[in-house]
Amino acid sequence: MKINYKKLLNIIVPISLGIFFIYYSFKDIDISKFADYIYKANYLWVFLGIIFGALSHISRSYRWKYLLEPMGYKLGFKNSVLSVFAGYLINFTLPRAGDIARGSIISKYEDIPFDKTMGTIVAERLIDLLCISIIILFGLLNQYDIIYSEISSYVKPKDFKFFLITIFSVIFTFLLLKKILKKSKFYILIKNFLSSVSEGVLVVFKIRHKVSFILHSIFIWLMYILMFYFTSMAFEGVQNVSFFELLISFIVASLTIVFTNGGIGVYPFAVQRTMLLFEVESTVGLAFGSVMWLSQTLMIIIFGGLSLIVLPFINRSKM
User: Whole-model pTM?
Assistant: First the structure.
């Protein structure tokens, strides 16, 4: 059997990074003290956080129908919810692989073309990007002094120049390759697919129920924030941190989910490090980040796993 080294690397590298960050997070931590924080946490608050997290995913499932309606497709709510949870579970294997799986599931069981489902998922991600950008801007304005001080201690002017040079080099390379390959069959195939996907993206401007769509988008991110906030209430050492300070930690931790396999190892580390900015002891910060990540991960594993099992049964007539 031929080994696909690219796929193997896509699995091994993120897991290795996760293990490294776990080691780095715990290397100076008193394990008995860490375990004591975990034991003494008030898990009623953690349970409330799980409920808010689940509500955000359910709202995302319902919001999806507003994107597909203008293209003439009706999305079944059950399949939508199950595919969203299944997609989040699959994201633990490869970053964003869950989005492709989610689109494939709906394409298979709802008879909606795959490029249309992917187009609307891309549109969703753009809306999410807008939402997180607004939250980041709000957080930066509220905690500007401490964030500027922290960033300036790490980022030097020469680093910024190197960043700009890299960006311009990537853009130039992309434009050059586009000019060279634009007549190839592969380019035409990709261009046609992206054209279909763009239809799904542009459907945002054709939504009939715009108010409902906007309210669901606000609700989704409000639930994410409340999930983080209520879980923090489980730990005595974090309870004195203000809502707006917690918002900074939420932002950084959320970005680790975007760029890694479900934030394995990195999410608790990000929470721990940002909590240090607000004078939260390292051990309790790590305990909070670990419980926060683990509680939401277990929810995804349970509901995502059940979704993958249930989907074929409720769609037997469509197979």
Answer: 0.80
